[in-house]
Each structure stands twice: as structure tokens, then as C-alpha cells.
Amino acid sequence: MVDAATMIVGAIALVAVGAAVVLALRAQGAAGAQQDGLARAVDGVAQTQAALTGRLAQLAESQVTAQAQLSERMQAQERALARAVEERLAALGKRMDDGLQQASQRQSTTLHDLRERLAVIDAAQKNITELSAQVVSLQDILSNKQARGAFGEIQLNDIVSTMLPPSAYKFQAPLGDGRRVDCLLDLPNPPGAIAIDAKFPLESFHALRSARDEAERIAAGRAFATAILKHVRDIAEKYIVPGETAESALMFLPSEAIYAELHANFPDVVEKSFRAKVWIVSPTTLMATLNTVRAVLKDARMREQAGVIQKEVRTLLDDIERLDSRVTALDKHFTQAAEDIRQIRISTDKVVKRADRIEAVQLGDDPAIEEVAPPQPKLPNA
């Protein structure tokens, strides 16, 4: 397109120059006939100019046609580009709508899950609040020595009443010297009645657990051991009564943590309690001990019933002997009856034979038979 425009501009300049030349020559044509050759040259330039004008017209037409075709192609490309852009925009809009819907669904699901989790957290928070209140109340109970003692006694009561029958224990049972023990297991001799006393050395245990350095820990450990051994001595002096209780007693610690601390780090205290015949038990070990006590009670009840069982067995043997003698007598009767029946059959057979003979004599079928022998006397068994 640039070359064609350049050609058009050049042609127009040439036409303008030729026109100027023609005008100049015509102005000078009057100078004379000698200038005929120059006139012919001017005519040739005019013809050339006419031809050039025709070509310029053709070139302009072709240029217009090319511009129209180019415009049509540009419009077609523009329409195609517009359609492609519209399609791309539509596809992009659809993807965006789908993405927004999916995002909305995911957000809705996430919000629903979040609400459920918040509900669970809210319930857990309520449980934690209730548990905190219970822990505070438990701390209030354990901070008071009397309440702490009642707590240990209640736990002891629950364990013993669950594991043993009511006839095997007594709570707050009096001893001969007027003292009362938390629980007294009623066992046969040996071993006899066993006393159980609940102790809860919480202060010394807390001091041991909250010790900040080695010196505090050693001092708290000594205080803890001293408290335990004091309880052991009190139980041995108060609740081991010769002739009334067994030679040993139980000290119930209603805390597995205190029991574990005692056996893990204070073996000398445990050994001294063994020598004092005071067995230290926790809720778990007390249940195991009560299982053994239940087996002992069952064995004792079986021994108590052993005499009754033996008496009943002897009576049963006497009944069996009488039954055997009566069966023997009945067997003799059956044997005698069978013998009598056999003798009766022998007699009936003889009677039948004699009747046959009598019938034969009357009919005269046997001439060789002589007189009928007189009947013989019957034997006792005949």
C-alpha cells in the first residue's frame, strides 16, 4: 500500500510537470513555424500524459477494490475475533460461576462443620466447667481433715460393700477397749477378725510433690515417711487386739498416687509396716485382698457345713443299705415265684399226658395198653 501511494504521488507530479510544459510551449507557439518539431513533442507528451492518466485511474480503481477487500477481511476478522472473545468470555464466566458455586458449597459445608465443632467445643466447655466445679469441691473436701477422713471412709465403704456379703463386715465396729475401727472383717479363726482403717496423709504428700529443690524434697520425704509410720503405729496399737482381732491389720490409702509414691521411693517405710503387721493397701490392692477374703469365707462356710454333709451322707448310706436288703428279698420272692411256676408247669404237663392216655384207652386206639395203673400219691413238689 505504501508503494502504490508513492507511485500515485509521482504520477500526479509528472502530470503536473507535463501540463506546465504544454502550457509553456503553447505560450511560445506563436513564435513561428520553426517550432513545429517542438509542437509534435508537446503532442507526444500530451498523449503520454493521457495514457498515464488512464493508468492512474486504473490504479486508483484497483486500489479502491483492494481497500474494499481489505476492509471486508478486516471486518470478518473483527467479527471472528469478537465471536472468539465472546465465547472465551462466556466460557470464563461459566467457569467462574461453577467455581463460585463450588466455593459456596465448600464454604457452606465448612461453616456447617465449624458449627458442629463449635457445638462440640461448647459441650466440652460445659463439661470442663462442671468438672472444674467438681474439682474445686473435691479440693475443698480434701483440704479439711475431717472431710478428707469421711471421703476415705466412704470410698472404703463402697469397696467393701461391693466385694463382700453384708454378714462378713461391720463399719465403725467397736472393739473390746471401746475404740471403733472404720471397718472390721468378720473372718473365722485363723486368722480372725481383721481391722481396716482409712488414712489420707495428703499434706505431706503435697509438700513432697511441690518441692522446688533437693533440700525441700528431702525434708518433705522425711515428713511424709514420718506421717505414714505414725499412722502405722497408731493402727498397730489400736486395732490389733490379741484374742479379739487377727495378728495384722490393714491401712487403706484412698489414693493410688500416694500408694505408688510410697512403694516406689520409700521401701523402708513399707518394710517397717510389714514388721508392724500393718499391710498398706490402695483401692486396687484392697479389692484383690477382698477377693481372697471372699474365698476364705466361702471355704469356711463349706467347712461349717461339712458335718451336716457327712451326717446326710451317712443317712443316705443307711437308706441305700435298706433298699439293697429289700431288693434282695424281692429278688428271692421273684426266684421262688419262678420256681413255683416251673413246678406248676411240670404238674400241668403230667396232667395233660394222663388225659391223653385216658382218651386213648377210651377210644381203644392202643390195644397193647393194659389196665390203667392206679394213681400214685403226689410228691410235695410234684
Report what the structure shows:
The protein has 382 residues and is of the alpha/beta class. Among the domains are: 149-304, Trna Endonuclease, Chain: A, domain 1; 310-382. Helices cover 75% and strands 7% of the residues. It is built from nine helices and five strands, in the order αααβββααβααβαα. The chain has helices at residues 2-28, 36-143, 145-163, 202-209, 214-239, 256-265, 267-275, 283-304, 306-363; strands spanning 169-174, 180-185, 194-198, 249-252, 278-281. The chain has a five-stranded mixed sheet. α1 packs antiparallel against α2 and α3 (145-163) packs across α8. The longest helix has 108 residues, at 36-143. The model is unreliable at 367-373 (pLDDT under 50).
Helix percent band = over 70%
Which secondary-structure class do the elements indicate? alpha/beta
| Separation of the first and last Cα atoms | 168 Å
- List low-confidence stretches: 367-373
Strand arrangement across the biggest beta sheet:
1-2-3-4-5
Backbone shape: elongated
The CATH architecture assignment of the domain at 149-304 turns out to be 3-Layer(aba) Sandwich
Binned strand content = 5-15%
What is the CA-based Rg, rounded?
69 Å
Main sheet attributes: strand count, strand direction, barrel closure: 5 strands, mixed
What is the CATH C-level name of the domain at 149-304?
Answer: Alpha Beta
Averaged pLDDT: 77
Total DSSP E strands: 5
Number of contiguous helices = 9
CATH topology call of the domain at 149-304 = Trna Endonuclease, Chain: A, domain 1
Order of helices and strands: HHHEEEHHEHHEHH
